[in-house]
Amino acid sequence: MFSVDSHKGKYHVVFGTPLEEAVKSCIQDTDFLVIDKCVYDKYPIFHRLIDSERIYILRAGEETKTLQTCQELISILISSGFKRNHKLVAVGGGITQDITSFTASVLFRGIGWKFFPTTLLAQADSCIGSKTSINFSNTKNLLGSFHPPEQIICCTEFLKTLPRNDIKSGIGEMLHYYIYADSSLLEDMTREYNKLVENPCELMGRYIEESLSIKREMIQRDEFDKGERRVFNYGHTFGHAIEALSNYEVSHGLAVTIGMDIANYVALKNNIIDEETYLYFHKHLKNNLTPYYIDNDRIEDYYNLLMKDKKNTDSDIVCILPYGIKDLRITKVSDSNTDISIDKLKRDLVDYMEDKCL
Ligand SMILES: NC(=O)c1ccc[n+]([C@@H]2O[C@H](COP(=O)([O-])OP(=O)(O)OC[C@H]3O[C@@H](n4cnc5c(N)ncnc54)[C@H](O)[C@@H]3O)[C@@H](O)[C@H]2O)c1
């Protein structure tokens, strides 16, 4: 049994239970389902076993990860007679998770929720860690809280129907944990990459557990993201801005993969790591790097999005850079502080986009 300690107590991730058995044993009569429409359409078991009065079908997208959606969900819950001892069950990816968990954290000052993650990103990363997030005023994940689920049921069966792009998005998040820990599975993932993308349902199990184990070790030490957990923002500051600049056409984990490569490149260009180290990381990121080019005249827009990142304080950009293998550190970019100047960062971003190694 895989369990995680949190401020709300221990919660468990259950692996390997066949889907039908898991739905029958984990969903109770008073539970209310919040389910991704795509999953609802592809997995008839949910209409077969759960009464439609107890289901909210969600069109998952960044544009629906909003307070309005949570408000609509709360109205439906209240009018359906939902009580504080009832539970929400999220069935979907990170978006369904974020909407359900945020709602669960505020309704009646906090109710219990369970999670069937259906994307690789949700299975290998977001399902643990307690964070809930909602987009607000064009800024991703600006609102949120810490409210872990009571139980996570991880069925890799769901990965059969997940589009390849979403498999690659999940791999992006997994790579960032593997690089943080310099996991022994990094080499295996690079070697098996194509097979993993083609057949995630059969092959992904041990990779998911490794990713969750690395994350668990950290979140148990710093659940509230006050200190060392911030190194898990590796690739995310640069990645979130790419997601936004591309109008979310580049998915989260693929943007994080580019974001890690940019962070490594910035470290290389500022003599923080040597070329051999940059190429070691690049070798493992390469399979999962999508071509994405930012023209010179859009670098300023990209920079402004970096500035909007919620981790920033005053005029500083806070990013995570590698200082070596298994050595990620929080680094400030500013004009007053000396780590890296803003102008130098902008030049590095332009150079990155031009660099032949991509
Ligand atoms: N709360 C956290 O700790 C945390 C951590 C990381 C990311 N996130 C958030 O997660 C979101 C991204 O999550 P995601 O990548 O899971 O995206 P998602 O929830 O949007 O799902 C991706 C797409 O896959 C579809 N889908 C889901 N399961 C499917 C299945 N089994 N078969 C076919 N299609 C399926 C969805 O309809 C959607 O179109 C972002 O908003 C990000 O900010 C949250």
Question: In words, what does this structure look like?
Answer:
The structure is a single chain. This protein has a seven-stranded mixed β-sheet. A hairpin with a 2-residue loop joins strand 7 and strand 8. The longest helix is centred in the middle third of the chain and has 18 residues, at 164-181. It folds into two domains: 2-161, Rossmann fold; 164-198 and 225-354, Dehydroquinate synthase-like, alpha domain, CATH 1.20.1090.10. 47% of the residues lie in helices and 18% in strands. The termini are far apart. The chain is globular and about 60 Å long. It has 15 helices and eleven strands. Helix 11 crosses helix 12 and helix 12 (252-269) runs antiparallel to helix 13. It has helices at 19-26, 37-42, 45-49, 67-79, 94-106, 120-126, 164-181, 185-198, 200-203, 205-221, 236-245, 252-269, 275-285, 299-308, 342-354, and strands at 2-6, 9-15, 32-36, 55-58, 88-92, 113-117, 131-136, 139-146, 151-154, 317-324, 327-333. It is α/β, with parallel strands linked by helices and 358 residues long. The structure holds nicotinamide-adenine-dinucleotide (NAD).
